[in-house]
Design brief:
Blueprint (H helix, E strand, L loop, with lengths): L1 H15 L2 H15 L1 H7 L3 H10 L5 H8 L3 H12 L6 H11 L3 H6 L2 E2 L6 E9 L4 H20 L2 E7 L3 H12 L9 E9 L8 E3 L5 E3 H6 L14 E8 L4 H6 L2 H13 L5 H14 L8 E8 L5 E2 L7
Parallel strand pairs: 1-9, 2-3, 2-4, 4-7
Antiparallel strand pairs: 5-6, 7-8
Helix pairs in contact: 3-6, 9-13, 13-14
Length: 314
């Protein structure tokens, strides 16, 4: 059943646009949006041209045509040409900038994480008064999420069924991990199953103590967590009051959507785009995000496109 609905979704998606067209549009948009910044930041155009020739993005004839202009016009002509070069234009440009030590220009085109591990992810699952049938689907969700983040290159820390006091201790301990100094990002994946408090900004711990979402976020901001200053801090909150009979057997559609979309697109799309794909996945399945089932995502402290490159590839 789960395999069938995945196949139907991707068949439908391919009918809307081809992957090549989507990649071309994405790279063109990124380059055009940052055109003036790249022109101003390009100190040695000849070096950029040579590296692009070496990567076979340009040939000598095109290089000569570009050089037959004044300085600023040459830069503009080069980047406008690359905007038409299709998929991989942005990746190749980023590699050129990285090789030359132009880290600012590299990040302007989007952050591609490269640390090993890529980041550290804390997965917390809170189960409150669910039946045995729902527990099966819940455990499937947890296992799928753990496997996803490991495959993305993250070290995963898993905690289950915490009281409020335990929850606060584990979050604070995670925010103090020395490994956060060495990685490019951090992720919190919070999954709750069962009743919710009346306060929409809070969740129940196992002892029915209420934990505020903003309290969690603040533990990873300066001065509480200076190790993550300037780094992406990803927060996923999945709150489920009940699972359908189908979800109890296969896991929830929301978690399946995240796992499938990230698996197919983490090597080529930034995270904001992938979360839009997740919403499309849910709409295609006829799933609605309601007060009973909520999926929220936030990227705090980082305002550029974030890629999991190389991510997951089939």
């Amino acid at each position: 059943m789960a395999s069938k609905r995945r196949n139907m979704f991707y068949q439908n998606k391919k009918q809307e646009t081809t992957e090549i067209e989507r990649d071309e549009n994405r790279d063109r948009e990124i380059i055009l949006q940052n055109l003036e910044y790249m022109i101003d930041g390009t100190e040695d155009l000849n070096l950029v041209l040579q590296k692009l020739v070496n990567k076979r993005m340009l040939d000598e004839k095109i290089r000569a045509e570009i050089e037959d202009n004044d300085a600023d016009e040459r830069k503009k002509k080069l980047y406008l040409l690359l905007a038409k070069c299709g998929p991989s234009a942005v990746i190749n440009l980023q590699e050129c900038f990285k090789e030359m030590g132009w880290n600012v220009l590299q990040d302007v085109l989007g952050k591609r994480m490269s640390s090993s591990p890529m980041g550290v992810a804390l997965v917390i699952n809170i189960d409150i008064e669910t039946c045995e049938e729902e527990k099966r689907g819940m455990e499937m969700d947890v296992n799928n999420i753990i496997n996803l983040w490991k495959a993305l290159g993250y070290k995963v820390v898993i905690r289950k069924d915490l009281t409020k006091r335990q929850f606060e201790y584990e979050v604070k301990a995670f925010s103090c991990m020395t490994e956060l100094n060495e990685v490019d990002s951090m992720a919190i994946i919070l999954m709750t199953h069962g009743p919710k408090p009346d306060d929409a900004d809070g969740i129940f711990a196992c002892d029915k103590g209420i934990i505020r979402y903003e309290w969690i976020v603040k533990q990873f901001e300066v001065p509480n967590c200076s190790q993550l200053m300037g780094k992406p801090k990803l927060f996923f909150l999945y709150s489920c009051c009940f699972l359908s009979s189908d979800s109890a057997n296969y896991g929830s559609c929301m978690m399946e959507g995240i796992c499938e979309v990230f698996k197919h697109h983490a090597h080529e799309e930034h995270i904001e785009t992938m979360m839009k794909f997740v919403n499309k996945f849910l709409q295609f399945q006829g799933e609605e995000i309601s007060n009973d089932n909520i999926l929220t995502f936030e990227n705090r402290g980082f305002n550029k496109d974030l890629y999991f490159y190389p991510g997951l590839q089939d």
